[in-house]
Specification:
Number of helices: 6
Low-confidence stretches: none
Structural class: alpha+beta
Helix content: 10-25%
CATH architecture of the largest domain: Roll
Largest sheet: 18 strands, mixed
Strand content: 35-45%
Shape: globular
Number of strands: 18
CATH topology of the largest domain: Diaminopimelate Epimerase, Chain A, domain 1
Radius of gyration: 18 Å
Mean pLDDT: 96
Length: 283
């Protein structure tokens, strides 16, 4: 079967978040897809399972360890492969069918943008010492804002920080994070610092075994956009800003976020560029 490797939310090749996209030309089991994702060992690998009569595409997402219902950079990267490789750059919109529902991706020039589901706001954590311990920082580094679980399809615990220095010092405490997953809630961790109303710095640590840092996380940044709107952190019900991620990993990423909250209705769009790196045949 054919496969493609792309860099998502990048400004040039070898930046952003890597993604492998497969187009199976035969029956393939869930077990084999999981084995391939483990062999590739990117944060996600996707499989385009076919085109439906309405023009949308069924897609499945896998981390090296588990199938997941939604993620941001796989959505943009897979839509790019469909648009450029399978549809010869003809449509300006691609619809992916995922367990969380239909996710539309629009293409305008070299920017792909996905519209995410409305955010769901979960529980808040009041024990800042516990939260700080997860990220090996001090409780005093955490801003006076809610530490809360938010999800537009893939949940994360959002941790607001007072300074960029605190963000650079974040490092996952494996033992504490595993205890949190086992006893509190299984989700990714997102720490952020607002540099100004047009620039937010972000780091995301995933909840898979190993707890690696993610270079660019569209789903988590969609969660963050909902959080910023809910608590009016940027001072407006309509926000447009760049989310900078992956700097500390030497995989700089740029996510363009545009979101609004009007009459209790959230609209969240996350976009960026995608670069083709390689393609081949999986034997």
């Amino acid at each position: 079967m054919k496969f493609y490797i792309v860099d998502v939310f990048a400004e040039q090749k070898y930046q952003g978040n890597q993604l492998a996209v497969f187009t199976p030309d035969r029956d393939i089991t869930t077990e084999e897809m999981q084995q391939i994702a483990r062999e590739i060992n990117f944060s996600e690998t996707t499989f385009i399972m076919g085109k439906k009569s309405n023009g949308s595409y069924d897609v499945r997402y896998f981390t090296p360890d588990v199938e997941i219902p939604f993620a941001g950079h796989p959505t943009l990267g897979t839509a790019f492969v469909i648009w450029k490789m399978l549809e010869q750059s003809k449509p300006n919109k691609v619809i992916l069918n995922l367990p969380v529902g239909e996710i539309p991706v629009t293409i305008s020039g070299d920017i792909l943008t996905m519209t995410q589901n409305a955010p769901e706001f979960g529980f808040q954590l009041s024990n800042l010492e516990e939260v700080a311990n997860l990220l090996k920082i001090k409780a005093d580094d955490i801003a006076d804002l809610p530490v809360q679980v938010v999800s537009t399809g893939l949940p994360c615990l959002i941790v607001p920080l007072k300074t960029y220095d605190a963000l650079t010092r974040c490092a996952i405490n494996h033992e504490s994070f595993q205890h949190f997953i086992d006893n509190t809630y299984k989700c990714n961790l997102l720490a952020f610092y607002v540099e100004n109303n047009s620039k937010v710095r972000v780091r995301v640590f995933v909840d898979d075994p190993g707890f690696v840092e993610d270079a660019a996380t569209g789903s988590a940044n969609g969660n963050l956009a909902g959080y910023l709107l809910k608590y009016n952190i940027l001072g407006s019900s309509k926000v447009k800003y760049d989310a900078l991620q992956g700097i500390e990993m030497n995989r700089p990423s740029l996510l363009q976020v545009e979101a609004s909250l009007e009459k209790e209705t959230y609209t969240i769009k996350v976009g960026g560029k995608v670069f083709s790196v390689a393609e081949g045949i999986w034997s």
